[in-house]
Design a protein that fits this description.
It contains nine helices and five strands. With 202 residues, the protein is α+β, with helices and mostly antiparallel strands. The chain has a five-stranded antiparallel sheet with strand order 3-2-1-4-5. The longest helix has 17 residues. The protein is globular.
């Protein structure tokens, strides 16, 4: 089992990043809550990981904090929740806000998350409420937004956001329409993705 990796970031294409660990490149899927906190490409980072082995593929998931990793693993224990939906949930909302929804039986907020219908929201609350009762809230760190004045850079941000939504299971036309609808000049692909996920319903 791979529990953590320390290495240099080679690529960041949400929700996937490429991490160079002593010359070996690891492809890691990470939620947007982790992407917000990643350093720039070329810098070193320590990620806590969860390794999923399937018959047709092996997937490595990375997290910036123990809270994110713990919540991801708790989500996987819920009936009907797989790694992709767990990743999408953590990409849609900060961990503390998700826990608040569970503890306070806030099904309305849960069903606004992509892939979460009423029955899934009810299962999340029933199966996770007791497990999260002792969760300690943490102050979320606001992402620093990178300023740019070039159209090429702006277009790249939009394309990165669309690619991330496609990787999360949306069709390219749906992803493009969602980004176009909510794009109000945000200059962070991570913020675009999160805002789009809040608006989209699978």
């Amino acid at each position: 089992m791979i529990g953590q990796l320390r290495g240099k970031i080679l690529e960041k294409q949400p929700p996937q990043l490429l991490l160079d660990v002593n010359g070996v490149g690891y492809e890691i899927d990470a939620p947007m809550s982790t992407f917000y906190r990643l350093p720039e490409v070329g810098q070193e980072v320590l990620l806590l990981t969860h390794f999923v082995v399937r018959e047709d593929a092996h997937h490595l998931y990375g997290f910036y904090s123990r809270e994110e990793k713990s919540l991801f693993r708790t989500l996987l224990k819920v009936n009907g929740v797989g790694p992709r939906l767990a990743l999408t949930i953590l990409s849609s909302v900060e961990p503390d806000e998700f826990v608040r929804c569970i503890v306070h039986n806030d099904t309305a907020s849960l069903t606004r998350m992509p892939g979460v219908g009423k029955k899934t929201a009810e299962r999340l609350i029933i199966e996770m409420r007791d497990k999260l009762s002792g969760w300690e809230t943490h102050t979320s760190t606001n992402p620093s937004l990178l300023k740019t004045s070039t159209n090429n850079a702006r277009n790249q941000i939009i394309q990165d956001a669309i690619s991330a939504l496609v990787a999360l299971g949306y069709k390219p036309p749906e992803a493009s329409r969602a980004i176009a609808k909510i794009d109000d000049g945000i200059i962070s692909s991570e913020e675009l993705i999160r805002k789009a996920l809040r608006e989209m319903v699978i």
